[in-house]
Amino acid sequence: MTESTPTATGSAAAATAPYACVTAAWQAHERELLGYLRHRLADPDAADDVLQEVFVKAMRHGQGFCSLDNPRAWLFQVARNTLVDRARASHASLPLPEGDDEPAAPQEDPPAPVDALATCLARTMAELPADDAAILSACDLSGQTLRDYAGAHGLSLAAAKSRLLRARQRLRERLTRVCQVSFEQDGTVAGHVPRTPGA
Question: Which of 50, 74, 113, 195 lies in disulfide reach of 189, CB 3.0 to 4.6 Å?
Answer without folding.
Answer: 113
